[in-house]
Write a structure and sequence with these properties.
about 575 residues, alpha+beta, seven-stranded mixed β-barrel, 12 helices
């Protein structure tokens, strides 16, 4: 039997940290008297980042007085007060080694069920003024755990804690935590964890991913339980020589290149929506690295990329003015997760400008298989002169029996024909989708400028479209995912203040930077930060897998460190979305 020593609550606040503003609910303080434990919160409590904290399965955070004493000794501190670790319940007993997922406890008039270990993040370190605390909580096996509220009721400091049921499989909080974060993920233990009905959906997804990884024989690197769904591994490492077999002017500012292997061999069939990385430039100068979505029908003979020439764009100008049929381009294997999902749900392909390229590949794939799915082709362009693939898309749609087409021109030209070349004047937006009665049960694939992407994504979510049915692909470097940190003006990517003159060259393909990795920069993350290149997953010490760990995530002791400075020998291409690719020329 345990005892509830303190009930702690607190509402989110803004906190200054390393020149940024963090919105967080990590500060909790004890309250007197009885408090209502509800399905989502204790009365008077709140979370700042609802994507990573809170919700039905994370309603109440529990931490033990024994762990308080442990950390006082480890950290040499004596200034702790209840709520110090951001917990709602400070308890006597209920250690992480003894409490099991699925255990049920009566406290006061409320009934609780253990759902998962605490997922620690950098904000715990802010609260404790211990930057490495998030990693240490897991490394030392003292994360704490979450309760789900099965029956709402009142609780108060001093209440006895009575266990009323034991979870199946008898897997402790410490065991479950180590199974995800520590090295080694035994298949039988993963299967055992997945048999626990009370396990929260996030942890269940992680263990399902790990089990799938184990069944495939494991991976050379990475932890599938800490990453988002990934695409198949690239068909070849580095680059392969391709010959430009055709060069086609698709519109006033878009040029397509058809690339075939210079050795005449077959190519890996890309998934519709994937991209490749090209090395562009003369042999005498260091090549520019650029990533381009494949725009043609997936096949084993060639790849097609389509490039928009932007004002002052070096790569577009090179392709437009200098690249000739017969020239050799070194090309990566296709990669990327923005791909067409199989199934029979309606498919809604939404694009603006050059964002048409990956969704055009999806349209070709649907037509090639004679799909019976309902397909909506919704495209925005400036006018007919800047409307690439207008004829190709119209003809491809003819092969689909359940097709819909809607084209918006923001500034039609005098020769553009309403109801023939385009259907409406203005920008493609969510209101147009409402007017068209686009099915809300479909999968939505969105690609275009950042403002179009964000507005469309937010609008679809407001319409009630499930987030896992909204798929996006951004051209150019996108924003970093920094949960809890208030938005601030973003500097454009640039060369470091003191660029190195030696070391391997790193190309941030979507930011258009070629940077020397000098000896003063210890990790790839540090190099990206020095250039203000946005990195999607950049936590050095946290273990928050709700934000999908990526290439530049690093930790202390139990997950891969940030990518260390490389040695010479080959070319490494790393996916680090939304930058999409970092090419290290060793």
């Amino acid at each position: 039997m345990g005892r509830l020593l303190s009930v702690n609550v607190g509402l989110p606040r803004d906190v200054a940290w390393q020149g940024k503003t963090v919105h967080t609910g990590i500060w909790k303080a004890p309250v007197k008297g009885r408090r209502m434990a509800r399905h989502l919160n204790i009365d008077g409590d709140g979370q700042g980042d609802l994507a990573g904290h809170g919700g039905e399965h994370r309603a109440v955070l529990v931490y033990q007085s024994d762990s308080y004493r442990y950390w006082q000794g480890q950290l040499g501190r004596s200034d702790f007060a209840y709520g110090q670790f951001g917990e709602n319940f400070t308890v006597d007993g209920l250690s992480d080694a003894d409490v099991c997922i699925g255990d049920r406890y009566q406290i006061g008039t409320a009934l609780f069920e253990v759902t998962q270990p605490r997922v620690t993040c950098y904000r715990a370190g802010i609260r404790m003024n211990e930057p490495e605390l998030a990693a240490l909580l897991v490394k030392h096996g003292r994360p704490g755990f979450y309760f789900r509220v099965l029956e709402e009721g009142e609780v108060e400091a001093g209440d006895e804690i009575t266990q009323v049921a034991s979870g199946p499989e008898r897997m402790s909080v410490r065991e479950i935590d180590a199974l995800l974060y520590m090295p080694g993920h035994p298949r039988d233990q993963l299967a055992r964890a997945l048999r626990i009905p009370a396990l929260s959906p996030g942890w269940r997804h992680s263990f399902e991913a790990l089990l799938a990884q184990e069944r495939k024989g494991g991976a050379a690197t990475g932890n599938a339980g800490l990453t988002s769904e990934s695409s198949p591994p690239p068909a070849w490492p580095g680059f392969r020589p391709f010959r430009v077999s055709r060069k086609v002017q698709e519109s006033g500012n878009v040029t397509s290149l058809v690339l075939e292997p210079s050795d005449g061999g077959p190519v890996a069939v890309a998934l519709p929506g994937q991209f490749v990385v090209l090395q562009l430039g003369s042999a005498s100068a260091h090549a520019m690295m650029r990533s381009y979505s494949l725009s043609g029908r997936p096949n084993a003979v060639s790849y097609r990329v389509s490039v928009k020439r932007e004002p002052h764009g070096a790569a577009g100008a090179y392709i437009d003015q200098y690249l000739q049929v017969g020239d050799i381009l070194h090309t990566s294997a296709p990669r990327g997760r923005f791909t067409l999902r199989p199934g029979d749900t309606p498919v809604v392909l939404l694009s603006a400008g050059i964002g048409v390229t990956p969704v055009l590949a999806m349209l070709h794939a649907l037509a090639a298989e004679g799909s019976m799915r309902e397909v909506w082709w919704l495209q925005g362009a400036r006018n007919g002169r800047e409307h690439p693939f207008a004829v190709e898309a119209r003809e491809t749609l003819e092969a689909l029996p359940h097709r819909h087409r809607y084209i918006c021109y923001s500034s039609p030209g005098p020769k553009d024909r309403p109801n023939t070349d385009f259907d409406a004047t203005g920008h493609l937006d969510v209101q147009a989708l409402r007017n068209l009665n686009v099915p809300r049960s479909g999968d939505f694939y969105i690609c275009g400028p950042s403002a179009f992407m964000s507005d469309m994504t937010a609008g679809l979510a407001a319409l009630g479209i499930a987030l896992d049915h909204i798929h996006t692909e951004l051209f150019g470097a996108g924003p970093s995912i920094t949960p809890g940190i208030a938005a601030s003006p973003r500097k454009p990517p640039h060369l470091p203040a003191e660029p190195a003159t030696s070391g391997p060259t790193v190309s941030f393909a979507r930011s258009g930077l070629n940077v020397r990795w000098g000896s003063s920069i210890k990790t790839l993350l540090e190099l990206a930060e020095a250039c203000d290149v946005p990195v999607r997953w950049s936590c050095r010490a946290g273990v928050c897998h709700t934000c999908e760990t990526g290439l530049v995530a690093g930790t202390v002791g139990y997950r891969p460190d940030p990518v260390d400075a490389p040695t010479a020998g080959n070319v490494l291409i790393c996916c680090a979305h939304p930058e999409s690719d970092v090419v290290i020329d060793l």
